[in-house]
Amino acid sequence: MPLPVALSLVDVTVSYGARVALDRVSLDVRRGEIVGLLGPNGSGKSSTLAVAAGVLDPAEGSVTVEGRARAADPAAFALRVGLVPQEPAVYDELTAFDNLTLFGELYGLAGADLRRRICRVLSRVKLSDRAGHRVSTFSGGLKQRLNLAAALLHDPPVLLLDEPTAALDPASRDTLFADLTRLRDDGHAVLLTTHHVDEAEGGCDRVAVLEAGRLVACGPPSELLRAKPNDRAVLYGHLRTRPPKYLERAIRRRLGTGARLEITGRRLRLSAGTSEELGRALATLLAEGVELEAYRTPAGAVERALRSGGCGVGGGE
Amino acid sequence: MSNLSLTLALARKDWRLFWADRRAALMGFVVPVVLASAFGTIFHRPRTDATATLPVVVVIEDAGPFTRQVGDELLNSPRLEAKEASRAEAEAAVAERKAVAVVLPIGFERLKAWQPGSTDPRPELLLLHHPNAGAERQWAEGVVSEVVMKRVAREAFGATDGESAPPFKVEAATVSPHPRTQFNSYSHSFCGMTLQYLLFWGMESGLLLLRERRRGVWIRVRAAAVPLSCVIAGKALATAFVALLQVLVTFGVGYAAFGVTVDGSVVGFVLLAIAACGLAAATGLLVAAVGGTEARARSASILLILAVSMLGGLWVPAFLLPSWARDVSLALPTTWAMRGLEAVTWQSGGLTATLPSIAAVAGFALALLAVAALRLKLAERAVRAGKG
What we know:
The complex is a heterodimer of chains A (317) and B (388).
Chain A: E1 5-16, E2 19-30, E3 33-38, H1 45-53, E4 60-65, E5 68-69, H2 74-79, E6 81-84, H3 96-106, H4 111-124, H5 140-152, E7 158-161, H6 170-185, E8 189-194, H7 197-203, E9 206-211, E10 214-219, H8 221-224, E11 233-239, H9 245-255, E12 259-264, E13 267-272, H10 275-287, E14 292-296, H11 301-306
Parallel strand pairs in A: 3-8, 3-9, 6-7, 7-8
Antiparallel strand pairs in A: 1-2, 1-4, 4-5, 9-10, 11-13, 11-14, 12-13
Helix pairs in contact in A: 3-5, 4-5
Chain B: H1 3-20, H2 22-43, E1 54-60, H3 65-76, E2 80-84, H4 87-95, E3 100-104, E4 126-128, H5 134-157, H6 161-164, H7 185-214, H8 217-223, H9 228-258, H10 266-290, H11 294-311, H12 323-329, H13 333-344, H14 351-384
Parallel strand pairs in B: 1-2, 1-3
Antiparallel strand pairs in B: 3-4
Helix pairs in contact in B: 1-9, 2-7, 2-9, 3-5, 7-9, 7-10, 7-11, 7-13, 9-10, 10-13, 10-14, 13-14
């Protein structure tokens, strides 16, 4: 039997002046599931999270958390939502403990209960030994873990994470998804945004695809990522190190016109007309000394939405 | 959670952020003390009953005995610090503003034969002075006139020293609104620099709020549904508390090192200090509310704070300002704060004398706070509606 709906967005529209960022988006997130919001930059992922967190008012539609609307009782709504912004939203000048004390106090926690919760979340994100250290001394990964801990202090049923892996290396990314899986298993409803197909496929129970403010697909990754005959074969990978520009140019020349290579930071996307061509392109890549830490080969609606090439998947859930 | 608890939590956060950079925090206490000490030393004049003397160079170009006698009397005058020199030496001393030169030129001796009613051309006496030494010139002219007229009276009427003296006695007395006290440059500078630095601290606190609102961390405050009134109250409380600490430290050092004391109403001083700290907090919130970008807010705030400090008499006493500036400054909170602080320190004013200043400063603080709160409320509403 499915667990109850924790977060519900119904026909939510968000506008920034004349620009419509979200257009009648409806989405439910149940307790015990991780839903990934997938889409290219500007598709409305962050706006969805902001409106779900109650920091942005929808122009139309409604947002409820466990049946409560923010307008009716802002404090009760806030207590049920934990937000993890993309940039670590913590004070660098303060210690991890002082940061958590402040954020706990903002949710009405105090005294021994607050201290106990701080110890618990620090232990959960494996930062207990850094409690008294200033955040300015933390690495990006440690800051992101503290960022998550701050959202967990008041034990909200709904967790919202805005591109939580944007600044993480592959190891930290895996650790984060392991944390999220544990939270999911504890009954939290998790909604996260990403524009990386591999994260959506590997870490989420359901994937909602946004395109230009519209929800164009939603379902289990196994369905959405299934290839269709007319899809191009695609491979997503993580590079061990980014190759120099001259090598990139040389590889592109060797790949010819049939295959296409895109490298952003240490992320790689390789596509070709058929699986065979993709296999040959990958062999060329490896022969040039490019080292991959990991790769996946998704396709289907998600891939089409990410490429903004249009898709035939109906909106809504 | 009550709004009071939220307010205190946010105030504690600002308190921790203030002390997070301890060197910067200490500078916040050291700088006003250093500035006040420097200003106080520059304007300090030691109390003395000794008669002041004017440096004068006497140039005697006429060789006549009458001229020589006038010159000698000038050189021996107890009101002058006079010495004889050539015209070139005299001009050099005047150019450096070291002295005023009295030149008794050739032909001055004719004055010996002067009689009342004489229509003969009058001999000249030259006074050379620096362009910025108008007061010294008038001082020298007064002394020279007295010496010359005494000598002429002796020559023309055979008057003795006693007979040629002025037929009246001059009695000098000081008249001041604070008859028992004397202007204390250190009291003035510690009042002025404390007030000025309170405004700068308010500005820094406002810039911190501006930074916070633009940083991702502020989204947590919004997500936690903290009422804006708590954000404003927390910021105001923390800013005012640190400001009060600055007042205590600055005046503490002023008392220990320079004898700056509250000679008037202590209650008036405390109330005025609280009002001034409230003004600093309101200034900070206004900076955060209307500042725009941090760089723009900083530049505009510094300009404004320096202007109101200067016009409010925080740098130099207000009586040295032109009358139009004194009139304009009545519309500034710094003027009233300075008046009040000076009244309760070196002017020995009572609580009643300070009440108008306390009311004015508190009124300005509340008005600025109201404008800031309204602006912040509108800004938050715009952000929530996706228009910010």
